[in-house]
């Protein structure tokens, strides 16, 4: 049997007093498409940052495609594509220069990078002047460039933190198509999103966390159990009540 694509065992992350991720354990098989849900501050991005070796867990172990991040994070990182929450792009480069920087780190040659970069820009409709610096990109353009960088080396596992945030409706469809194509090729996908319809449509497997703890993990059907929608399930699991009244308005 092949190693899990991603395995978290008793993973905890503390920031001072704050427990951002609390004894989280889960495992997914290669080729899975996992949607990660939770309220603001639930611990989704922290979990993704730990799974992509950007942040070290306080305790617990994480393996990605059989590589323990503590001992062989480089091997694991070669197999990953990552679009982190803050994107962390190098703003004083042009988009093409940035992709060269990222592509070279993955061992691609410049001709290969430029060819793939042009195809990515075209597919994602990323219309930036060849001399425009990333600093002058719009928010959505930066998001697209971050996705280009996550895809350029052909990852075996892709982690996307809020990939649809700030993306126009046309590109939204393109990205969904790209993700479904990757899934059909056996790539493992993990994304966070607050757009429940997106997760409902795209992700056969769903994890819901609240206050750093896993509240639900399974297929939509397994999780739903009587709830009429993912939204009502989500509300029942994380227990939030929408509020509307502000005292001065
Ligand atoms: N570097 C940090 N230092 C201190 N606290 C942090 C740090 N990073 C995250 N936290 C805290 O950990 C908790 C989880 O944050 P995280 O960013 O993982 O949430 P999230 O589920 O991604 O939320 P959102 O949906 O708003 O993106 C929050 O309370 C946050 O304030
Ligand atoms: Mg987040």
Question: Any overview of this molecule?
Answer:
With 249 residues, the chain is α/β, with parallel strands linked by helices. 36% of the residues lie in helices and 24% in strands. The protein is built from nine helices and ten strands. The strands form two sheets. Strands 6-7-8-3-9-10 form a six-stranded mixed sheet, with helices on both faces. The chain is globular and about 50 Å long. The model has no long low-confidence stretch (mean pLDDT 94). Adenosine-5'-triphosphate is lined by residues 15, 18, 20, 38, 40-46.
Summary, kept brief:
The protein is of the alpha/beta class and 249 residues long. The protein has helices at residues 44-51, 73-79, 95-105, 110-123, 139-151, 169-184, 196-202, 220-224, 230-238; strands at residues 6-15, 18-28, 33-37, 59-64, 67-68, 80-83, 157-161, 188-192, 205-210, 213-219. It has one domain (6-238): P-loop containing nucleotide triphosphate hydrolases (Rossmann fold), CATH 3.40.50.
Widest sheet: strand order? 6-7-8-3-9-10
Uncertain stretches = none
Oligomer: single chain
Structural Rg: 19 Å
Query: Strand tally, please?
Result: 10
Average of the residue pLDDT scores: 94
> CATH superfamily membership, which one?
P-loop containing nucleotide triphosphate hydrolases
End-to-end Cα distance: 60 Å
Strand content of the residues, in percent? 15-25%
Secondary-structure element sequence?
EEEHEEHEHHHEHEHEEHH
Task: Identify the CATH architecture.
Answer: 3-Layer(aba) Sandwich
Bound molecules: adenosine-5'-triphosphate, magnesium ion
Helix content: 25-40%
